[in-house]
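dumping this here before i forget
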Amino acid sequence: MADTGLPPNWEVRHSNSKNLPYYFNSVERTSRWEPPAGTDSEKLKHYMAAHHSAGSRSGAAPGVPEGKIRAAHLLVKHRESRRPSSWREAEITRTKDEAMEIIKAHENTIRSGAASLGDLAPTESDCSSARKRGDLGYFGRGEMQKEFEDVAFTLKVGELSDVVSTASGLHLIERLE
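structure:
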């Protein structure tokens, strides 16, 4: 087996839902997105380049699955959202108008340069992707809600969307790759 540079009992696995590699401890039966403490980052970098990249496709950016993009978002839910609860609040009672005021304030903060979407998402987003700075990983057509997807695929890398409304709530989307 190739040397991953990971500490004992850790291995690299691949998340089919996020299409991203993650780290799994076979003894503790725990997983995480970030490499565990004690990882030899140089060895891991070489292992990932050899085993978890898509560089064999001509014309494709290394590591980017064909036909897929990567985006992050900040989600503000409201009481009409299809699931009006989140890791931040067990029951979300704000109105859609109140949610719009909140997300517009976040949009102004991001556009002013005072903070990035990735800076705000960990504390302000109602999506579980908050713990990854809003990063949703790679996704293709048909994997996200249509309104979200239609906007995400039109963004240039590094570009921030206007507010997007879906059944989940109100989103700001940033194209990462």
